[in-house]
Amino acid sequence: MKLSNWIAAGAALICAAAFAAPLMTHAQTAPDGEAIFNGRCKACHDPAVGRAPNRTTLASMAPGQIVEVLTTGPMVPMAAGLTPEDKQAVAAYLTAAAPGPEAHAAPTPTRGPPPLLANVGVDVKCTGPAPPIRQSASDWASVGVDPTSHRFQRHPGLTRAEVGKLKVKWAFAMTGGGMPTVIGDWLFITNRSGKFYALDARTGCVRWLTEGVTSRTTPMIVRTPVSPSGWATFVGERNRTVHAFDAQTGQELWASPQLESNPVGTITGAPIVSGNQLFVPMSSGEEGAATQPTYACCSFRGSLSALDLATGKVQWKTYDITEPLRPTRKNSVGTQLQGPAGGAIWSAPTVDARRGLVYVATGDSFTEVPTLGADAIVAMDMATGKVRWSHQVTPGDNFIIGCNGAVRGVNCPNPTGPDYDYGASPILFHLPGGKDIVLSGQKSGTVYGMDPDTGRLIWSTKVGSGSALGGVEWGMAADDRRLYVAISDIIDIFDEMAAKQGKPPLEGAPPGPAKPGLSALDPATGKVLWHTPAPHAPCHYAGDRSRDYTNGVCVNAQSAAPSVIPGLVFSGTTDGWFRAYDAATGRIVWESSTTARTYDTVNQVKDQPGGSIDGLGPAIAGGMVYVMSGFNGASRTGGNGVNVLLAYSVDGR
To answer: Which pLDDT belongs to residue 546?
Structure first.
């Protein structure tokens, strides 16, 4: 998933390129942020190369966000040799802010109160005692609603006729917020500021918050005796650990051991509960770290860990790449390279309780050493972690950042693949005839149907043009009749615009015909039932790295994961538009521009702008629809540095 995932504001954000300059000599004088940037960063960011954010996007970020990416998690190798003062100086230079406490990254993995980024607004606490958490049929308690990852809300609490009356009831500003979960009148959400919130789902006031939770995963809420209140929530953190909290109080219940020793590992996919187990996927920032000539590319391997729900103890851990690591060649500066590597698991796993299986979708290979574990759907035994089957859809998809343009880094694999890896969770679908099928969508723009018992390919359908940021990015959705596929094709959009201006393709290759939009497929056959192109519509976002290629034209990639209620599909686009589609025909029945106005938020931010809609899409519960506008602080298009969570209700009531 790379840049469209956390790396969008991570690997490509930080100031280390394949052309990293030698470190400056430190004297008693304050570091020169501009000099460090020019020596180590400018080659990739000014102008932007490939998918790296440009200076405009970097300038829209909070200083602490830049420092945090340079300091913690998988990006540590790319900032090797920089002192804390160096990082603060770079952040101050890029954001025109004086270095200060707000630009310090948080230590990890403590639960203390060090904010990663500049705090946004004022946390307005709810008045009176918090009511007990009460389950309802309308809850959205995990990223995919159910363990099979359908993203289908059967009991939305609003009718089709009422959807046309949806208006924003409340808004909450935060830095880099993700997708919320909702149970009863409680809403849970993490964000890049290190704050984990429990909000009143009806009003947006704060019921509790825990600081220092460096997570971008969607919290999962379950009823369990593990917690004193009977309700627990689980969050995967960037430092490769999982924490369990009492969902009623925010009290920490347990912290897992670090689930991966490789420092480039990180957790981006939401942990998923089934029975007394918690399944945790491991992804990576090694594609970014490998741009440094001195980095011994590459050694990371994606994995899935099963934890005991009561204690966080690891029951088993299975790597998706099984071929032995071996030295390969030395690069042009003499660094010994190695492989195979890759197979990052970017998304949440999908549970098949009847078969005792858990399915994961794996990312691309980082080296030219052959492996069957990358770009694959893998089925693992829930009890033991043993791989029952693995189906690779794109052999030889070897890729690291900086390898698809005119200038290539010294660690680039040869041959280099198209970067078509999986970034979306598989869906286990029950067909009308009684059989099941595993559905998966790739950045290639191809959707697959596989036999859940064997992994045998049943069908494949090309829906989008596909590219490194094209095709299916964050997820698909399904009701009982259809599979709904949102297509990004953002690189192809950029390239088509660039070609009109006589500029080179963004990915160094001729563009395909961009096909952003929403499609419905027959899950049994893969037949396209309808396709609605993403409309061209006005937007008003700032901090847009795509403006280098578009001259300010709004980019309508449909990369966010859609969500479904009976008869309607909700889906957003990177130009900030949020729409509802007729599930049977694809006709747009309602739309709202999240950038057409500003918002006075519950946490007392005045005139907060919206931005792109990307990422894991909307949650629908209790008659309300929740969506994040702005996407992770610095998305590839439409990032404003601060996101805003929008809560829609009928007539804003």
So the answer is: 45
